[in-house]
């Protein structure tokens, strides 16, 4: 069976893996992104990762999943707001790895993987939403990934859910990702901590070495009222966006990925209730889209990038 290298470039970390064409991971590597260093330094690290993963292996191609709009023909990342890349010729920087590198949006990659070997396997329509530094999206309709005119479609995180709301890194206001990404949850957790010095969130953050996307959920489990409010508010905003997606695409499956999705039913149960209450004609609908977590977890991005490398270029 052929082997490919899949790279998932995130705002926080870079994941890489050697993936067999059936989706099986054979080797992996990770390193921090530290995007403030600029694209060239980050791309150097990606190149080093590709070389390490490819050493001594027969690799048929490399897929790079990027958090933004990519132009696979030109080999450029056109615009990625959360890492600050604009028209960056990443293929040229990676040329000396000796591998041909294909580019795909990170969440589109996750959707490809989930549709092929994960939560949406066997379905004809699915939406994958990744909750990380930003919110990513991949839409599969009638078995095909929705690309739009130039491949820039499915920027689900940048649908506006609050007119004139909070500022997004993309320059618009009120984008879904400013309310429902992991970054947004962390920001709200920190704000709740500042407002409630007696909250259990302080102890939890201390014990875990800082605030992350799990802190508020841990606080809720400990019965802390401030944490419970943060989680409820987070799920409310997440639910508004998911309900919009249900009303637009009505897919068979909506799969959530990214670290926050690891909360499983703690997140999904209240989320499903939120979404159903906002679904168009909900009371009369016999079947609702299934809202589940990505079964490939945080591997979806690397697997999908590798599977993309196996596809014929457009
Ligand atoms: C970007 C998307 C990306 C997502 C997750 C968003 O801010 O616009 O292209 O898929 O973050 O990384």
Number of domains: 2
Number of contiguous helices? 10
CATH architecture identity of the largest domain? 2-Layer Sandwich
Q: Please describe the biggest sheet, giving its number of strands, its sense, and whether it closes into a barrel.
A: 5 strands, mixed
- The radius of gyration is 19 Å
Here the CATH topology of the largest domain equals Nucleotidyltransferase, domain 5
Instruction: Name the CATH homologous superfamily of the largest domain.
Output: ATPase, nucleotide binding domain
Helix content: 25-40%
CATH C-level of the largest domain? Alpha Beta
How far is it from the N-terminal to the C-terminal residue, by CA? 23 Å
Lateral arrangement of strands in the main beta sheet = 3-2-1-4-8
Shape: globular
Residue share in β-strands = 15-25%
Question: H/E series, N to C?
Answer: EEEHEEEEHEHEEEHHHHHEHEH
* Helix vs. strand class: alpha/beta
Q: Name the ligand types.
A: beta-D-glucopyranose
Overall mean pLDDT stands at 96
Low-confidence stretches: none
Provide a compact summary of the structure.
InterPro entries: ATPase_NBD, ROK. With 314 residues, this protein is of the alpha/beta class. It folds into two domains: 3-114 and 298-310, Nucleotidyltransferase, domain 5 (2-Layer Sandwich); 122-295, ATPase, nucleotide binding domain (Nucleotidyltransferase, domain 5, 2-Layer Sandwich).
Task: Write a concise keyword list for the protein shown above.
314 residues; alpha/beta; Nucleotidyltransferase, domain 5; 2 domains; five-stranded mixed β-sheet; 37% helix; binds beta-D-glucopyranose; Glucokinase; ATPase_NBD; ROK
């Amino acid at each position: 069976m052929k082997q490919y290298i899949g790279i998932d470039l995130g705002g926080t970390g870079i994941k890489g893996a050697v993936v067999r064409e059936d989706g099986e991971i054979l080797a992996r590597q990770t390193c921090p992104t530290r995007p403030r260093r600029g694209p060239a330094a980050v791309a150097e690290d990606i190149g080093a990762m590709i070389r390490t993963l490819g050493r001594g292996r027969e690799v048929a191609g490399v897929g790079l999943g990027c958090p933004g709009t990519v132009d696979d023909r030109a080999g450029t990342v056109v615009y990625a707001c959360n890492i600050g890349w604009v028209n960056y010729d990443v293929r040229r920087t990676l040329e000396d790895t000796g591998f041909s590198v294909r580019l795909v949006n990170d969440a589109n990659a996750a959707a490809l993987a989930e549709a092929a070997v994960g939560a949406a396997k066997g379905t004809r329509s699915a939406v994958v939403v990744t909750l990380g530094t930003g919110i990513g999206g991949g839409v599969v309709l009638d078995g095909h990934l929705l690309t739009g005119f130039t491949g820039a479609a499915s920027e689900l995180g940048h649908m506006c859910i609050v007119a004139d709301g909070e500022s997004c890194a993309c320059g618009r206001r009120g984008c879904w990702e400013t309310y429902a990404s992991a970054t947004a949850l962390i920001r709200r957790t920190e704000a709740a901590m500042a407002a409630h010095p007696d909250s259990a969130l302080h102890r939890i953050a201390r014990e875990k070495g800082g605030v992350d996307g799990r802190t508020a959920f841990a606080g809720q489990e400990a019965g802390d009222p401030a944490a419970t409010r943060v989680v409820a508010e987070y799920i409310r905003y997440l639910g508004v966006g998911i309900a919009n997606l249900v009303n637009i695409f009505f897919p068979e499956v909506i799969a959530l990925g990214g670290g926050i999705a690891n909360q499983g039913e703690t997140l999904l149960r209240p989320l499903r209730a939120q979404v159903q209450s906002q679904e168009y004609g909900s009371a009369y609908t016999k079947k609702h889209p299934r809202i589940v977590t990505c079964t490939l977890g945080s591997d979806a991005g690397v697997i999908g990038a590798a599977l993309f490398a196996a596809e014929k270029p457009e």
